[in-house]
Amino acid sequence: MSVRGYTFVEIKAMLERVGLRVLKAYGDDDRRPFSLETPRLIILAAEPE
Questions:
Q1: Which of 7, 8, 18, 34 sits most deeply, having the most CB atoms within 10 A of its CB?
Q2: Is 40 a domain residue?
């Protein structure tokens, strides 16, 4: 079994390919901005209006 990590840019491109747009990217559950030092990547995406 192998595990692969994805960068924010890769995930954003995947979401856009299926018709979604990224609204926000957070670095933790308290909605702090995402950075390379934050513990996780939480992406809020939606269909275009």
A1: 34
A2: yes
Query: In this structure, is residue 3 part of a structural domain?
Result: no
- Domain span including residue 42: 8-46
Q: How many domains does the chain have?
A: 1
Overall pTM > 0.85:
no
Let me know: does 14 contact 43? Beta carbons within 8 Å: no
Query: Residues with Cβ < 8 Å from 33, sequence gap 6 or more?
Result: 25, 26, 27
pLDDT category at 11 given cuts 50, 70, 90 is very high
